[in-house]
């Protein structure tokens, strides 16, 4: 076994690899960018070396620099994690040349599977079933359009070099083909530096089922069963589970055999995943092979009881596979949810900022949290906005699901927008609970997932107001204690509390809603008034923001985190983002830019879509921005005309930058 390995990655996966290495007595070297100087993976590793500025192409993607660090620190092997250099054949080759073990497959296997089109040709030869489509080298747009016609709409255009759900466009009619091809190629060029595409028949109501495979240097290969990753948003996985609901032993064996065939066809070594797209009747087609550890590998670990990183290290150091196919077993059911800093109500726009509060549910044999951040850390625009992966295990799917619901309800995140409430709704929708799965589930369940905001319960306004009063009181008490001066104004504030007759009003906002609350000091607590009704309230709030409240006869526990004028209230299994409105600047300045026309985050302008001076309808695309490796389209907030664009394609824009001058129709 290696004595020391380098981890060429960051975030949760770097932390995940360090954990196993430590357990196996292998020391770890982390690498980090300037933006990650205080990151969790740097804190956890035995040593850490700075490799460059924040931008991944200047740090985590610089192969030579990483190899240099490996040599300097005496690391014998490099674990690439996922993303970054993990599927880069040149990096795998460079490691081999430098005499450093690449913990992954040989460069030849990465190359063979690297391009979706080439891998399809190879799989066709190996007899693995393929989705009907075109994966030829000729990229003439006219030919591609003809091929789409031949395959029959709807079709899916995929970047051949694509991954992570990027560079894919569904096209329903021939009229939309050209525009979709252009935008797909543009995204592919930006994200992968290669704009070749392939076209596939768009399978309706498909499931995504993938098989975990492992090969060793002795030529053995096994499958560690399947994961169902059908619950996706814009072709990106949101929930993953193992085993796949409804899978029969016969079909599992057939798909497992096909997966092993696929791996053997490229002389695979290490951990890999063979992805299939599956029709509702169970027929399956090869989609692609990912030649690395997957984000969702923990669900496989939970049901097999194995540590896949340990397997990776053993195989890379030359050991044979630890178990044979017949020794492998599935125990129970596991589900993973990806917790992201993103705003589901704003089209899942990534959110950046400090994690003012980050308290995951308690971990146990059934609940696992893999994360690269801790409370106080920052989600920056430089990398993927993942906060954590929450993985639960149960004796069966039902038990796993209820554990997932409970764990989500215990998550406390404040400071950045996040998808915890969305995930809570998602694991509760009947179709997911009944395992009626396909990749369109999220889209189909819009009504349940994005309900018309129900009225905010009265308790929300009351609890946040009570928390505010208790906090002020605590501050006043602390100041009074420390103020030697008897005439200190803090004592006066303390006095206000004793003077029960004065009434204050606090105005809160949730989205567009505003609510005024009156507060009167009364006995040991307060009288809270809203819309004419009064409720007596008292309680305590501790330094961890835990509120123990008494509202009338009810005792309620909640958490209220304060950030500036914002309050995040966690209560009854969900959270509310409130704003203390009376501290907001009042009135409209008239020349304010509509927020929709500002850059939602730092990014790069990639296309000016609307013609200047020509009337456009509400919702028409005006400009395309690339941020966090995704395209965001800025659309017309209402009918009007673009007077001028303030940036040109290729320009970097800061967060909040005014992108264009727009004049609404009178
Ligand atoms: P990536 O490498 O970007 O993850 P994949 O080829 O693995 O891309 O596809 C990602 C997802 O897109 C799949 O899980 C599936 O939901 C959807 N998808 C892919 N191919 C098809 C298809 N032919 N028809 C319908 N959906 C598809």
UniProtKB/TrEMBL annotation:
For whether the record's keyword set contains ATP-binding, the answer is yes
Q: Which UniProt keywords apply?
A: ATP-binding, Biotin, Ligase, Nucleotide-binding
> Which metal ions or organic cofactors does this protein require, according to UniProt?
biotin
The ATP-grasp domain sits at 120-317
Fetch the SUPFAM superfamilies from UniProt.
Glutathione synthetase ATP-binding domain-like, PreATP-grasp domain, Rudiment single hybrid motif, Single hybrid motif
Q: Which residues form the Biotin carboxylation domain?
A: 1-447
NCBIfam families reported for this sequence: PRK08591.1
Q: What is this protein called?
A: Acetyl/propionyl/methylcrotonyl-CoA carboxylase subunit alpha
Query: From which source organism is this entry?
Result: Pseudaquabacterium rugosum
């Amino acid at each position: 076994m290696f004595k020391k390995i380098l981890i060429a990655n960051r975030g949760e996966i770097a932390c995940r690899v360090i954990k196993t290495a430590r357990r196996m007595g292998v020391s770890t070297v982390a690498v980090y960018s300037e933006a990650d100087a205080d990151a969790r993976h740097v804190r956890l590793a035995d040593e850490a070396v700075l490799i460059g500025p924040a931008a991944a192409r200047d740090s985590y993607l610089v192969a030579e620099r990483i190899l240099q660090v490996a040599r300097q620190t005496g690391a014998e092997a490099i674990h690439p994690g996922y993303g970054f250099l993990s599927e880069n054949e040149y990096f795998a080759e460079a490691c081999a040349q430098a005499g450093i073990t690449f913990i992954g497959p040989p460069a030849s296997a990465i190359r063979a599977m690297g391009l979706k089109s080439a891998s399809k040709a190879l799989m066709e030869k190996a007899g693995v079933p393929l989705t009907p489509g075109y994966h030829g080298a000729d990229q003439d747009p006219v030919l591609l359009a003809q091929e789409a016609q031949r395959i029959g709409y709807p079709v899916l255009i995929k970047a051949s070099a694509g991954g992570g759900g990027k560079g894919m466009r569904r096209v329903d009619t021939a009229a939309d083909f050209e525009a979709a091809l252009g935008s797909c190629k543009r995204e592919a060029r930006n994200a992968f530096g290669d704009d070749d595409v392939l076209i596939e028949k768009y399978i309706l109501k498909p499931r995504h089922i993938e098989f975990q495979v492992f090969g060793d240097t002795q030529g053995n290969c096994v499958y560690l069963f399947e994961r169902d990753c059908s619950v996706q948003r814009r072709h990106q996985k949101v929930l993953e589970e193992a085993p796949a609901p409804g899978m029969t032993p016969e079909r599992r064996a057939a798909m497992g055999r096909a997966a092993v065939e696929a791996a053997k066809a490229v002389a695979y070594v290490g951990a890999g995943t063979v992805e299939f797209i599956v029709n509702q009747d169970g027929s399956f087609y090869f989609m692609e092979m990912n030649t690395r550890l997957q984000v969702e590998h923990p669900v496989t670990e939970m049901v097999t009881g194995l540590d896949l990183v340990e397997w990776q290290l053993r195989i890379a150091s030359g050991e044979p596979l630890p178990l044979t196919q017949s020794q492998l077993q599935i125990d129970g059911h596991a589900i993973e949810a990806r917790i992201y800093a993103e705003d589901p109500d704003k089209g899942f726009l990534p959110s950046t900022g400090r994690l003012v509060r980050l308290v995951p549910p308690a971990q146990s044999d059934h609940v696992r949290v893999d994360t690269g951040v801790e409370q106080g850390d920052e989600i920056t625009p430089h990398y993927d906005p993942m906060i954590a992966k929450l993985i639960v295990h149960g004796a069966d799917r039902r038990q796993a699901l209820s554990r997932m619901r409970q764990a989500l309800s215990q998550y406390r995140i404040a400071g950045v927008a996040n998808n915890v409430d969305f995930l809570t709704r998602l694991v509760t929708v009947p179709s997911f609970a009944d395992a009626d799965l396909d990749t369109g589930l999220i889209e189909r369940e819009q009504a349940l997932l994005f309900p018309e905001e129900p009225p905010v319960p009265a308790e929300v306004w009351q609890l946040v107001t009570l928390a505010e009063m208790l906090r002020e009181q605590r501050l006043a008490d602390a100041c009074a204690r420390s103020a030697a001066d008897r005439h200190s104004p803090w004592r006066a504030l303390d006095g206000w509390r004793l003077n029960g007759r004065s009434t204050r009003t606090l105005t809160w906002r949730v989205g567009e809603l505003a609510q005024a609350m009156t507060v009167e000091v009364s006995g040991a607590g307060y009288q809270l008034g809203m819309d004419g009704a009064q409720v007596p309230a008292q309680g305590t709030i501790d330094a961890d923001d835990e509120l123990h409240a008494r509202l009338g006869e009810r005792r309620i526990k909640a958490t209220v985190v304060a950030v500036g004028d914002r309050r995040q209230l966690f209560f009854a299994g969900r959270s509310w983002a409130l704003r203390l409105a009376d501290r907001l600047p009042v009135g409209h300045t008239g020349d304010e830019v509509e927020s929709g026309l500002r850059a939602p985050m730092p990014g790069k302008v990639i296309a000016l879509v609307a013609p200047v001076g020509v009337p456009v309808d509400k919702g028409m695309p005006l400009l395309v921005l690339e941020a966090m490796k995704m395209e965001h389209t800025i659309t017309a907030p209402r009918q009007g005309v673009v007077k001028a664009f303030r940036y040109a394609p290729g320009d970097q824009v800061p967060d909040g930058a005014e992108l264009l001058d727009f004049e609404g129709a009178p």
